[in-house]
Amino acid sequence: MIKVIYCLCRRGDLSPEEFRRYWRDVHGPLVQRHKEALGIRRYVQSHTDHGPMTERLGGFRGTGVPFDGVAEIWYESLGALEAVGRSPEGRTASRELLEDEQRFLDLTGSCIWIGEEVEIIPGSD
Question: Which end of the chain has fewer CB atoms < 10 Å from its terminal CB, N or C?
Answer without folding.
Answer: C
